[in-house]
Amino acid sequence: MLRASLNTALKEAMKARQGRRVSTLRLILAALKDRDIAARGEGRPEGLADDEILNMLATMIRQRKESIEFYRRGAREDLAAQEEEECAIIEGFLPRPLSDDELLAAAKQIVAELGAKGLKDMGRTMTAFKARYPGRADFGKAAGVVKELLS
After folding, report:
1. How far apart are CA 145 and CA 25, in angstroms?
2. Which of 91, 121, 139 is the last residue of a domain?
3. pLDDT tens-digit profile of 48-67?
C-alpha cells in the first residue's frame, strides 16, 4: 500500500516537474529497493512490509534533522533549507504522530497488557510498542515514558 503510494507520488511529481520532490522520492525508492534486496537475501521474497517502510522513513527523517543541525552550525543555510524540504516531503508519507498524551496512554496500555512490572520488562514492552506504532512515535521519547512507568 505505502509502496504503491510512493510510486504514484513519483509519477505525479514527474508530471508536475517538481524537481525536489522527484529527487526525494527517488532517494526513498532507492533505499527501499536496497532493503528489499537485503530482505530477499534473508528469505523474504515479498520485501519490506509497510511497518518496516515506515521505520525506514522515520530513520530518513532523523538523518535529515541531524544534517540540518550540522549545516546550520557550518553556516550552510542553503543546504539546511534543502534538507528541510526533503524532510517535509518524507513526513508527508508518515501517519500522524502520537501526541504526548496519546504516547502516555499507549505506553500505559501496553504495560498493562503485558503485565510489565519492572525495568527488566523494558525490552519486551518497547518491542510491543514499536510493533504497534511504527512511524507514529518518537521511540526515544517513548522509551523514557515506559521507563518512568516501570520504575
Report:
1. 33
2. 91
3. 888 889 889 988 999 999 99
Over the stretch 59-108, which tens digit does the pLDDT of each residue have?
Answer: 899 999 999 999 999 999 999 999 999 999 999 998 888 888 888 898 88
In this structure, the answer to whether residues 37 and 55 fall within a common structural domain is yes
Question: Total domain count for the chain?
Answer: 2
Q: Which of 145, 129, 148, 121 is nearest to 51 (CA)?
A: 129
Q: Kindly report the length of the chain.
A: 151
